[in-house]
Amino acid sequence: MPLLEPNPKALRPGTKRNPAPDRVPELSARGTPRRLREDLSALLGPEKVLSKVSDLVRYASDASPYRFVPQVVVVAEDVDDISAVLSYAHGKGREVVFRAAGTSLNGQAQGEDILVDVRRHWAGVEVLDGGARARIGPGTTVVRANAALAPYGRVLGPDPASAIACTIGGVVANNASGMTAGTTRNSYRTLASLTFVLPSGTVVDTADPAADEELARAEPRLCAGLMALKAEIEADAELAARIRAKYAIKNTNGYRLDAFLDGDTPVRILRGLMVGSEGTFGFISETVFDTLPLDREVSTALLFFPSLPAAAAAVPLFNEAGALAVELMDGNTLRASVSVAGVPADWAELPKETAALLVEFRAPDAAGREAYERAARAVLDGLDLVAPVPSVENAFTRDPGRIGGYWKARKAFVTAVGGSRPSGTTLITEDFAVPPDRLAEACAELLDLQARHGFDAAVAGHAAHGNLHFLLAFDAADPADVERYAAFMDEFCKLTVERFDGSLKAEHATGRNIAPFLELEWGAKATELMWRVKEVIDPDGVLAPRIVLDRDPQAHLRGLKTIPTVERIADPCIECGFCEPTCPSHDLTTTPRQRIVLRREMMRQPDGSPVEARLLESYGYDAVDTCAGDSTCKLACPVGIDTGALMKEFRHERHSPREERIAALAARNFRAVEASARLAVAAADRIGDRVLERATGLARKAVRPDLVPEWLPEIPGAAARRLPRTHRPAAVAVYYPACVNRIFAGPDGLPGPSLPEAVVAVSARAGRPVWIPDDVAGTCCATIWHSKGYERGNEVMANRIVEAAWGWTAGGRLPLVVDASSCTLGIAHEVVPYLTDDNRELHAELTVVDSLVWAADELLPRLDVRRRVSSAVVHPTCSMRHLGDADKLTALAEACAEEVLVPADAGCCAFAGDRGMLHPELTASATAREAAEVTSRPFDEHLSANRMCEIGMDRATGRSYRSALLALELATRP
After folding, report:
1. Model-level pTM?
2. Which residues of the chain have pLDDT under 50?
3. Shortest CA distance to 579 belongs to which of 566, 563, 596?
């Protein structure tokens, strides 16, 4: 064991805990049973089998109110792995559940036996026929698929609010639709073909002309059973008519029995049945979608009404006018949305009774948009709208920023409302549909029902399609509260079915919480047919038992998860999973959601339990050490939960007093530290990479990998000891070269000036000269200490840099230009909590400008571009995303190159200062997809604006990245 290995007990929750009824039992502390682990490891390879108790716990939760701990998790890489697992399950009498993004709201992604991760290795998009179709892997997010289609002017039909995180496999398996899909643009209607693996292991490609012939040979019993069921349904005219009627409105409750009416062969029937089957009929390994036109002419309004029924009554008018989307939000939803960045603060003052409609028209051209706008104005003239707070405009807009803000508030419905629920309560998301012309009546009945059961729910939904969602919060650890929820559900389901002949699940699929009510909606005959379909396709009941079909009338009350209170920054988390795709460690160790899920399980455990001990043993590396600390999770989370900040707090808690003192000493003596680091880098050139790799490797083993960086061959040489000479009197800005650019030189082998020389030269060339203070040495943005959780060192440097910057800029009269995006973020924002009151006032007077913004806004308009390369690829850093200036990097690149590519899979490189040297495996994992895209073709330039990120991308791609300002200097050089 290394000498300075941190004590896992340092992260033990210190609050008083009452063991939760749903805690993982002590017998599970060792994780997967030995025989099961050994069997699957021998079958698939140990690297594909996750068996620690921490692995099982982090996969036990999804976005639903349920929690089931699997016996083992398998990370499947290909169809052979899927078939092997299914064969093993058949032979051993075991059960299998597939899990991709885990954004399901009804527990579909949870299992109690073998859980198979089908996200990690299943992403990919191939655009076909000029964008008319797309072949998409099931682990691909909807956002990623649409990004590939956008250049072709096409888009997928399904558009769920969770598109940032949910994957295509889950969208098809649940027939998730979203804001605009309705009953005509969903997966059932827009899938051209799909490939799936049946429970028996048979693989079916519905696009193969010989598919039926091959299936008949492989599965004669299955084919005969499907055709017999088809004949039975078609012979029953009343049943066939009932099935057609059920799908006249949105409906994902139960199996798609209309597949028997729409398909004329076993393969075509199976193609329809797989949609919405929730993983109970097979694994969808590939999809081919027919895409839809991406109409770019948009006009949108957020319209406020005095009540929910009043808003609902206006929906048919906008439908008739041709609106593509009409979204409903009640007062609770609107008020909760103030936690979402960009939402007007005065929404918090909206009356509870207020409701709003988000109405959007889309057209292929300006003439079509104008026609829609005329129709919309005619509707508006007849409405009684309200403006309870000053920010309300009640008008249509074409402004993309404003439209994006409206949609951000709407899509944050579940997370924003869930984040504002009382601490310790569980969130239920319900989803139902009624005939659209009865929506106003349904809204009134729903409000009355909630009031009678003591719930103050939030309501929103796809009003154009009669589809509403509402959220309920209750304490799953309190039997009385669970009973209150149960009574509400009984009455709600009867109301929806008996009063409105509605759908109990419009787009979220049956799941665990509606399975007991399936027969209520469909009747005994149709429900028994569904059981028979399941028996025909999966006679041994291997796949996803109890997720669609369950005869237990109390099944929806089983497995409800408690939500223990955790650290304040993470406590609002509803475990939705929106944060996961952006997390650099999501394919290596844990995600932000999983870090919180593991913390909550610690809180469920009695102090000192074996399960808690095992969780703590894994948490240090899996959660804390391999968090890049980039906080892109905060950007993805609709309510801004910053799990990266929490991990930095945990790093601080693990530090010994001695480590904190050393870190503070380094901050106080940073001039000497900086000079020593530059000398060490210079010496490294003479010593050689192999010797340094060996030396640092030994030191990491002896001390601690998280303290001693690994030497990497991509680390450049030392920067010049002296910065360029500049003059203060003529300067229009103060230029602050970040310490990383004072220590490290630019890419090896690329001629030209250093970055500081380039910034000075190009600024002067544009007539905007800058001044470098003589005393920048020994100062830093404080990110070094902030990212590692060294609070005292952070305080020392944060206050030093602000005091220095205030003096350099003459009390804030000149802007401070910073040449590394992470350092800009540090000085502009991250130092603030660590400042004294006096220095916080000084900081408020500073104008901190990222070098990208300086170059794009102040220099480029004043420069003549004299030469351009053919192509450039850019790496937008996570700091640019936080600062909102990634577009400036693209603008600079476009000035320097004829063609510019922003990789579709660009994300945080996870180099994170020196974290990529402490844990190179983190950067390798985080950059894998972006690197594959970059290295698929040559580029003349590889551009970014942060030296350490450039080094990380050098390592990931084998290419040489450099600052965009170096490219700009060359492009404009006389």
Report:
1. 0.95
2. 1-3
3. 596
